[in-house]
Amino acid sequence: MPEQTFPLNTWYAAAWSHEIKRELSARTVCDKDIVLYRRSDGEVTALEDACWHRLLPLSMGRLQGDQVVCGYHGLVFNAAGRCTFMPAQKTINPSACVRAYPVAERHRLVWVWPGDPALADPTKIPDFHWNDGADWVGEGGTFYGLKCDYRLVIDNLMDLTHETYVHSGSIGDEAITSAPFEVTHTDRTATVTRWMIGIEPPPFWAKNLGRPGPVDRWQIIYFQAPSTIVGDVGVAVAGTGAPQGDRSQGVNGAFLAAITPETEKSCHYFWNFVRTFRKDDEEFTRALQRAHVNDGQGVYDQDHAVLEAQQKAIDRNPRMPFYNLNIDAGALWARRLIDRMLDEEHSQRIPVPSAAAE
Amino acid sequence: MPEQTFPLNTWYAAAWSHEIKRELSARTVCDKDIVLYRRSDGEVTALEDACWHRLLPLSMGRLQGDQVVCGYHGLVFNAAGRCTFMPAQKTINPSACVRAYPVAERHRLVWVWPGDPALADPTKIPDFHWNDGADWVGEGGTFYGLKCDYRLVIDNLMDLTHETYVHSGSIGDEAITSAPFEVTHTDRTATVTRWMIGIEPPPFWAKNLGRPGPVDRWQIIYFQAPSTIVGDVGVAVAGTGAPQGDRSQGVNGAFLAAITPETEKSCHYFWNFVRTFRKDDEEFTRALQRAHVNDGQGVYDQDHAVLEAQQKAIDRNPRMPFYNLNIDAGALWARRLIDRMLDEEHSQRIPVPSAAAE
Amino acid sequence: MPEQTFPLNTWYAAAWSHEIKRELSARTVCDKDIVLYRRSDGEVTALEDACWHRLLPLSMGRLQGDQVVCGYHGLVFNAAGRCTFMPAQKTINPSACVRAYPVAERHRLVWVWPGDPALADPTKIPDFHWNDGADWVGEGGTFYGLKCDYRLVIDNLMDLTHETYVHSGSIGDEAITSAPFEVTHTDRTATVTRWMIGIEPPPFWAKNLGRPGPVDRWQIIYFQAPSTIVGDVGVAVAGTGAPQGDRSQGVNGAFLAAITPETEKSCHYFWNFVRTFRKDDEEFTRALQRAHVNDGQGVYDQDHAVLEAQQKAIDRNPRMPFYNLNIDAGALWARRLIDRMLDEEHSQRIPVPSAAAE
């Protein structure tokens, strides 16, 4: 059994809010099979997706009011996971239940806590307000079941020099590679800041800035452990004070990533690209979405291919750990914070109090 | 190596009689690869499906009279598994042979005995006379390579409350779940008997009974260890004595199942649904067959989906044994009888006398 | 970990020369992922196909002059495997490199040496001059990723009695099975010689000899350890001295095989069938190629099916070693020579000096 690579006592995005309706949806998070549904009060429930009785996925059953009816023998479980009906018997075994996972909806996503429910704290949901659809606008998507360790996606996003090579035909730019950057961190966050001062803007930014001449370009990548990333990116007219905080002469976007381990070697990658300019231009929104993911032609599709190939190579070459370059400083801090969470969790590990027998 | 879950010293259905012709057919039974063919005298032979010499499946070769010619180097094996020809040499290694499995044809099925040939006893072939095509009429089929432990099929059939949920759109009926039942057993058999007295008949039975009014409905499920099940089902006009044995005012059918382990996690499920009414109506026969299996639309197709999903869930949730309900009493007896057979076999285990080196 | 079945300190065919161009080609040899490309000086380079930094296959990158640029972060490796560029840093870690495999081009094939580079000796490249396209003419092909242990292909070719059974519809002939043969060997080679004196020629040879009457037919199979085979085959008018060395009254062909382990259970099978007659007849060349491999219809396609089925059977029947017949004498010598190479390699095993960390 390899060591577990993801903390459990944390919130992970499990679905977009709009995906969870008055019907059963199956999702695997941290190797745990979960069935999700929206109750009549509008809240979301997340239960263990295996009937207490014979393990059939409850997601193969049906919703009855706010309860789930198993599709095999009709056992019924309420939103707390407790069995409320057993076929052909009046007495219900009081231990009959399935795990109920703490769940919360925020920033247009449904978050679940796969670990000890007693520790679930909604204030620990990652700050992902860029995704709210208010100040920032954009429509993203999800790579469900991306076949790589979730940390490879983090490595990818914490260092944007890869854009120069993976996305050489589109957003790549030699300036990224040559610009210096700085990494700072707190207990739970790491930030990579890169400023490219007085450069020629790449085509995308030049067009949206709408003014000729050199720019100051920024990429500020903000990681919240264990697996949420916000990349604040943009350009402003050179010398107008953007590095000092005045972005009034610029255009600003942000790439958002909530990466959820599915198994040790696969993950769900919730992404978005949002912006504060041309916010009402829905055609532009759709064009940006297609630029990122478009049947294998988008820039994130290129990352997708690289990430899955990298995982295969890791499986074939068990000579970990990786060798590192200066550019990996941000990714290394991210992994260090993840490792800390794993260590904390490991040292605190006590039997999970749960009504379900495990 | 997990513990073996199926007894070997017993008869298992390997094919329908009509499937075995004057040609080579491959079948895996209890993890043993077997080649089957019909000899010129009309009897069936079952040999180990791997050439003594270089292991090529003999089923890739050809029949020469009643002998099998290997498709690689032409070694010939007779119906006893003994090598009778080796290429380019006159002396034949006397130890050169493949295993010959005891085989018997009965009740329109070909049965093989994968264990010690010395113990093979034709009187132990399960009673499956319902399938003979005489008193009872019907045409079934086989789910070859159903991806689940054969015992999950037994669990499924020994408790028909699942019909209410899995087959809610067709044969399911709340009356099944609410009716009491009784389980009896012998050394090698278990029987679940359920009577629903004075109920409204479900549509299928109402139509075939052809008379209005309440009925007495029965489901008598007869298990013969390790894996044969006959379900005697029907309805009679209420109060005409069916529970006491007089079925003259009723209609009677039987579902038949011979379930053969292919591997630890897959099986061949030979099924039929036979009846004693409208016996000459061939269109009805075909309609009943289609009602059970029809490109994913039949009632057994629904079980198929549930059984394979259940096996996957078991593989992901190694928290066996199952929790049980009252409704599982029949299945539990079936498993208990299987376990007894396994224990007996284990305690008697001595090297299998076989000409083939193993 | 099963014992390794292929020696590493030897030359294996990795590609046809015409397949390696000014672009990156991936190939797995002896479980080692390799990227091949032709340099501007026309020579071929073979590097480890996993970037030193993050393991992405270099074959997903691009060629820049004679160097390879990784497709993820742009690290550049020269043809010696040494890193010459790292993004965003001026100092290059001197240990940063990937393995460079010794490579040689000869006989229209590209050969690589997967073992200790210090031992690579071009004089040890197998004699495969029949493939040069000069004295002998023919066009072959490759079964890449044939799903069997490379030694099964050797077994297949070292004993041609299988032609009688596998290729009964085409080149098979009872005379092969009944004719005696002789096996000789040296330290690194084994030779099976079979003469069929005064027989009726099979259709292919009769037609190409162009003269009626009996022939002396030969099959002289020459094995060079670990996995190169040349089968000198032909017929001459009976009694004209062919067994004594005078083939002037005959027609002569040769089947060529260079078999390269890809993994323990798969291989690349480079084949050709060449001849010394009708050398200018290109239509005949194409017809012969199609006769061997033709969308599953050629004689080698028949072997392909047998070999993969045999591997599957071996995986299911771990009762090795095989039983042997007289006809296996040639194959047994081949395996003995392979085993000797493995023993030698094992006894000499010292840490491979390599700049890459392993």
Task: Please tell me what the overall shape of chain A is.
Answer: elongated
Instruction: Quickly count the helices of chain A.
Output: 7
**Average pLDDT reading of chain A:** 93
| Number of β-strand runs of chain A | 18
Termini separation of chain A: 18 Å
Low-pLDDT stretches of chain A: 352-358
Order of helices and strands of chain A: EEEEEEEEEEEEHHHEEHEEEEHHH
The quaternary organization reads as homotrimer
Give the DSSP E fraction of chain A (strand runs of 2 or more residues): 25-35%
Q: Helical amount among residues of chain A, as a percent range?
A: 10-25%
- SSE class of chain A: alpha+beta
For the largest interface, the chains and their residue counts are: A-C, 26 and 25 residues
The strand order across the widest sheet of chain A is 12-18-17-16-15-14-13
Largest sheet of chain A: 7 strands, antiparallel
Our Rg estimate of chain A from Cα atoms comes to: 22 Å
